[in-house]
């Protein structure tokens, strides 16, 4: 229960007496025999006094109210001024809070705010305030403009790291990694990694942030290269990083338990005993986070004869997911699988070319070799190029379909029968041109022509629009094959060389 003096002080404070408000706020700031310590209540009374220009109240706020509480105060301009006054009276901690308030004001940090915060921190950075050293180092490092302070960023980071600021330690470790100084990286990172794991063991709810998880991942990778002496350290590091949703760590952990590399080859590195169950758990987690190579590794596990739950349907399903996410090897194998099964479904050759093209574009060299065997590249047909020279504006206007077919042959290297009989609607497969006229011309063979250039794509799309509502068969406006041949011969004033295959069987 409050004493008589405190009750009197409360009445005077409520009446608006600045000195009483300051004294009451001070009591709540530190607590008394009858009044509990309450920073929120202290700020309430001290701020009322400070708004009446009570210097003592301003200094008490600047000296004792923490940043989290100051940040929530509604009058940002007023509270910044109170911390500024405390800084002018020599309170360096008030300068740190002031800099943080300036940086947190508004939705974005503009260059003016950044410069003001840097200026404040530079006045206190040499007074052994590790958090100020770290904040200043981060500000000048991320500043878009070169400043003299940038040269000292690494020095301030090192000082903050020596004082135990974890984020500064991680930044120093990242600097070693970026400069490929892996010995220094391990020297600095291993103790931090061990402390993170220990904190996790002591506090089950604690979890590393993204930068800490990345540190644990890299530390494990480098220790793995060092040899078997560090095997017991690696797994806890990757497990902790993976639990923080680090996909790469989960992927490596999956390979670790499967004792294989990402292409399914057996390795000597890994867990003491192979556990496909654990491997699948971690690889699935990595895959669900969008890591294509994790789905590919899963497909390899489900193909393994030693896996008790071997399932080729699941293996194919995971392979398709990896291919859809852009994994080059998965795309190559997907294309190869489609090509080998073309007898079951003739259109599988189109699917094979699609996936092989994708794999080639992603750098898979084996896919290029297979693609060159099953599809051809567009080469201009000499007969069509010659025929194009005889076409006039009038002939193109009177026979637009025939002119379009000649142009298509000139771009994609079609023979005369192929050009005259091709079903334009079904030929365009997006990534390739399907040439299949066997129904009307028995001696021909089904073939696929790759669409590789913008000109090829534009030509085919334009001609496709011309034939959009046209029947390309013998019952359409172009007539049968003999009629089309006759029209071609009469359209051209000079004889165009023919190939032997161009004659009707």
From TrEMBL:
Coiled-coil ranges (or none): none
Superkingdom field: Bacteria
InterPro entries assigned to the protein according to its UniProt record, in alphabetical order: Sel1-like, Sel1_AlgK, TPR-like_helical_dom_sf
Annotated Gene3D superfamilies: Tetratricopeptide repeat domain
PANTHER family: ERAD-ASSOCIATED E3 UBIQUITIN-PROTEIN LIGASE COMPONENT HRD3, SEL-1-LIKE PROTEIN
This protein's name: SEL1-like repeat protein
Phylogenetic classification of the source organism: Bacteria, Pseudomonadati, Pseudomonadota, Betaproteobacteria, Burkholderiales
């Amino acid at each position: 229960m409050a004493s008589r003096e405190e009750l009197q002080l409360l009445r005077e404070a409520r009446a608006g007496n600045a000195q009483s408000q300051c004294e009451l706020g001070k009591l709540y700031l530190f607590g008394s025999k009858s009044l509990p310590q309450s920073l929120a209540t202290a700020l309430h009374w001290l701020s009322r006094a400070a708004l009446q220009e009570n210097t003592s109240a301003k200094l008490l706020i600047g000296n004792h109210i923490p940043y989290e509480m100051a940040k929530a105060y509604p009058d940002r301009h007023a509270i910044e001024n109170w911390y500024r006054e405390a800084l002018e009276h020599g309170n360096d901690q008030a300068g740190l809070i002031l800099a943080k308030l300036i940086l947190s004001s508004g939705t974005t940090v503009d260059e003016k705010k950044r410069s003001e915060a840097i200026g404040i921190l530079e006045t206190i950075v040499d007074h052994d305030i590790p958090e100020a050293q770290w904040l200043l180092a981060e500000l000048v490092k991320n500043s878009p403009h070169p400043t003299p302070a940038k040269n000292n960023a690494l020095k301030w980071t090192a000082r903050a790291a020596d004082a135990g600021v974890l984020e500064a330690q991680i930044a120093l470790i990242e600097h070693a990694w970026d400069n490929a100084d892996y010995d220094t990286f391990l020297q600095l990172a291993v103790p931090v990694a061990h402390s993170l794991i220990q904190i996790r063991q002591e506090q089950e709810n604690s979890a590393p942030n993204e930068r800490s998880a990345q540190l644990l991942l890299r530390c494990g990778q480098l220790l793995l290269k060092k040899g078997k002496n560090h095997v017991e350290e690696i797994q806890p590091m990757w497990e902790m990083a993976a639990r923080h949703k680090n996909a790469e760590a989960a992927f490596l952990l999956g390979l670790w338990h499967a004792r294989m590399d990402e292409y399914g080859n057996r390795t000597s590195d890994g867990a003491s005993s192979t556990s496909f169950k654990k491997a699948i758990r971690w690889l699935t987690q990595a895959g669900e986070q969008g890591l294509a190579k994790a789905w590919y590794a899963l497909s390899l596990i489900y193909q393994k004869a030693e896996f008790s739950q071997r399932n080729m349907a699941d293996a194919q399903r995971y392979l398709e997911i990896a291919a859809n996410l852009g994994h080059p090897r998965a795309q190559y194998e997907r294309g190869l699988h489609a090509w080998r099964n073309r007898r079951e479904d003739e259109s599988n050759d189109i699917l094979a070319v699609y996936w092989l093209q994708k794999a080639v574009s992603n750098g898979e060299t084996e896919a290029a070799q297979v693609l060159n065997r099953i599809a051809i590249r567009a080469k201009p047909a000499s007969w069509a190029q010659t025929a194009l020279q005889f076409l006039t504006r009038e002939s193109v206007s009177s026979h637009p379909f025939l002119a379009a077919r000649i142009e298509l042959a000139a771009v994609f290297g079609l023979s005369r029968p192929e050009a005259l009989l091709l079903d334009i609607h079904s030929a365009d497969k997006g990534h390739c041109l399907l040439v299949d006229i066997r129904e009307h011309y028995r001696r021909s063979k089904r073939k696929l022509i790759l669409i590789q250039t913008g000109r090829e794509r534009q030509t085919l799309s334009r001609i496709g629009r011309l034939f959009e509502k046209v029947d390309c068969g013998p019952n359409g406006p172009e007539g049968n094959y003999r009629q089309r041949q006759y029209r071609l011969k009469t359209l051209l004033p000079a004889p165009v060389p023919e190939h032997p295959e161009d004659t009707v069987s």
